[in-house]
Structure prediction request, 838 residues.
Amino acid sequence: MSTNYPFRHIESKWQKFWHDNQSYKVADTGPEPKCYILEMLPYPSGRLHMGHVRNYAIGDAIARFKVAKGFRVLHPMGWDAFGLPAENAAIQRNTHPEQWTIQNIADMKRQLIQLGFSYDWDREITTCLPNYYGHEQKLFLEFYKKGLIYRKESWVNWDPTENTVLANEQVINGRGWRSGALVEKRKLNQWSVKITDYAQELLDDLTQISAGWPEKVIRMQENWIGRSEGALVHFPIKDHAEKSLEIFTTRPETLFGASFCAIAPTHPLISDLLSDNPELAQFVQDCQRIVATEEALSTVEKKGFDTGLRVLHPFAKGQEIPIYVANFVLMEYGTGALFGCPAHDERDFEFAQRYNLPIRSVVETTSALPYTGPGKMIDSDFLTGLTIDDARTKAIDALEILNLGKRKITYRLRDWSVSRQRYWGCPIPIIHCPTCGEVPIPGDQLPVILPQDVKFDHPGNPLDHHPTWQHIDCPKCHGPAKRDTDTLDTFFESSWYFLRYCAPQSADPIDAKICNDWMPVDWYIGGVEHAVLHLLYARFFTKALRDCGYVTFDEPFTNLLTQGMVCHETYQDENGKWVYPHDVEKDSFGNHIHAETRAPVTVGRSEKMSKSKHNLIDPQDIINTYGADVARVFILSDTPPDRDFDWNTEALDGSWRYVNRVWRLVEETFARIEQNVPGDESLCKQTHQYLAKLTDAYERNAFNKVLSFNRELARAIDDRKDSASSSSLREAVSILIQTLAPIAPHMGHELWDKIHPGQILLQTPWPAVDEALARVDEITIAVQVNGKLRGTLTVAPDINTAALEQMALALPSVILALGDNAPKKIIVVPKRIVNVVV
Ligand code: ANZ
Ligand code: ZN
Prediction:
């Protein structure tokens, strides 16, 4: 027997070939139809993880298949290179964020090349370089001119130790994730993007893409946008004749069940009318301790404070309703105020019980309260007897006549706050002048480049501490002014990079012509964790840039594939400490033990690979031991791309054996292929039947199926390798190689070169299915009596039902099973089962 597949030599040979020949460089024009395959760009943390390998192996298989199918494929790669980890690394290791980032990019790029991915590296984008973020500043200013970016005071999470704003996700149990300090609410001037202007379009256009996106991502986007139809209602404030409290409700028909109003702790009414109440001030301060995300609020205990203020019911003359300040009311939603109807809302019910407020049913029910189902209105004056829907319309009409309210559609979607008090991000190209106010940096002074000489020895934003950078003369009045020292949220960079890949050297941020030709992306592949924010921002950018005249399409991504997570069992030692997989062995009884201490190890659930649980496998180890092709075959085996992948060491060995088997199969068949001998031709039919299945599996991105059909084809070849005619063997082996190559490209190229010397696999079109050969002329059908298997029939696939029933009834085993009973009915499941029921 021959030796193992020599992957080291072969993989580096073909990587060099692809590089030297610029094999993956793609032209912006050409006779072939375009196809844009895009994988989410990685954050350059320094090392690829298994999730990257899976993501990029999927993208590469699609890209290589499309190339073989005759498309002109754009398949670029880049780096989402701004962000906090670089600053943390700079602080911890005393390097510069840029140096750390650039080094990491070099390391990860080497790994991507080692994996043999087919990227057009001429289009590489690094978002932390001025030739990317400078263009981003131009786009920022375009949005600014259009009124799509504005500055406003908003409440932020302030970490008093780090002197910076924290994102909601960076606040854990009310404390800064790194400093551990109690986070405060502060009002700061922040730049915001008016994504809410596009709320309805972002919702409506989901129908344009729903065919190509996973259903669950569409639902998540819908929920995030969160359209609610309802009404604004003005409640006159007692003893303040000129003032009223404006609330938003989705259930105006329940107004007769109102027993309190509640306002957010930051509602302006508090400073307006209640500023001299120290107890209230204390309550408000306590509320601000907890971060007001909807998620946090849904779990926190509902608390309120009676302000003493009363409002008048808009319909029920003389009825007074108390105003509470409540910790569960969000200032950012609706009007920051609501009326509570305890009988028909869970949260209001809880609140009313706690503060002894009346609970009045206004929808008829025999169920327990609170009741949120359908029904007829009761005890509701002019609404009594109506259905909920009719009552809603009538209530709003009445409010409009009284001039106390109107119809209103609200969205849960908030404007996107993009200011970060950080160094390692795109500088905001605006100047603040004491005379002129906000002044955009003129175009000829762009890009605004980050200063290199910054220190990380103070907490807070290094750009603020820089001695000179922020001081600049105002471009308008030439007086002394200051730069904005905030940088942009890194989601800004990832919102348009796919447009820049189309023409990465363009002097304009986006080359409209080229971009309109390449876009939209045909397949976008990435983690489902980006189902909401990144994908929504990218969709928004596309629409906003369309309205700025840059592009002509509405949606950036036609098809979306959200890959599942890569998971691994978790291990703990006797003290509950996490143990790395490479430290775990099985003893001779099959029990898991620690390789060094020999102490027992408990095996926990399979979970997403993570540093904290130590259940990581380093892809570099797999590449070093088995090679890139085996790593790729393994990560695409057994599991559909959109499902979670459970690490399985036996399957890894199985992938290694399979790649070796194909290698040897070509060696073993080679002499016969070359001899041109006649022989058994039956392999032709099987080859084309598998080719049809393999092609279909590629079209569906069912790479697990691809690999299992490919194995079956290898088995068929193995069975006939000594009897098949040379021509049928040559065709079968060629198709075996070609249909494995998008997943195992190095071995594919090597074997192709062996069988077709001088031909380059990458330039070889996908084999055409011979339909006549591929046609299945017989299928096997199970015959049951009362659901029990009694026999099988081998028939033509297009046989009609009547003939099938007759054949089934004529089977001796069926006659025997029926005995004297006449069949009552016969159920035929096309192409599969005939069931005779007696
Ligand atoms: C009265 C009412 C009666 C309500 C009832 C519900 C049930 P969605 O559906 O998510 O849009 N609300 C209004 N503004 C709020 C805010 N700033 N913070 C927290 N809650 C707020 O939710 C709309 C409902 O949430 C509104 O309808 C309001 O309570 C509450 F039987 O008004 B409802
Ligand atoms: Zn000025």
